[in-house]
Design goal:
It contains 7 helices and no strands. With 144 residues, the chain is mainly alpha-helical.
């Protein structure tokens, strides 16, 4: 994998040919690596992550019914079109937030019971799951 830094060029140009501008180099670097030069990860994935984190925060504070795409867009400083492009509509975003929450709870339970057996495994699994369900703001909004 070839990673370019700003100011470097791809060696496809001879010494006599004009050097590409930074914009061209940056676009070529993105094509070669698939990563944003500043984020060091795919830009679309970073945008989706940022949107879903903000959505989880808004849903936790305001609830699913009062959550809006326009409010989400304002909180992440982008247009509603960007929200739809990266994360989908309100239903898809709410579903993604719940799936992420569920995954966190399942992972916490798995980590807590990995070395346990028998009744202790069941008791700890239920305790950990209940603890997470009680402390997550999103779950509190679901139960209202």
């Amino acid at each position: 994998m070839l990673i370019l830094r700003l100011g470097e060029s791809i060696n496809s140009h001879s010494e006599n040919s004009p050097k590409p501008t930074r914009g061209v180099e940056h676009r070529k670097a993105l094509e070669v690596t698939g990563n944003d030069w500043l984020l060091e990860q795919p830009r679309a994935a970073a945008a989706t992550e940022r949107i879903l984190q903000a959505a989880a925060s808004l849903i936790g504070r305001r609830g699913f019914d009062d959550f809006s795409i326009h409010e989400l867009a304002a909180s992440v400083h982008c247009s509603p079109a960007t929200i739809y492009r990266h994360a989908g509509g309100k239903a898809a975003i709410c579903e993604a937030v719940v799936v992420r929450l569920s995954s966190r709870i399942v992972n916490a339970v798995d980590d807590a019971i990995c070395d346990l057996t028998g009744h202790e495994r069941i008791v700890v699994a239920v305790s950990v799951a209940l603890h997470h369900l009680r402390t997550e703001h999103i779950v509190q909004q679901l139960l209202r």
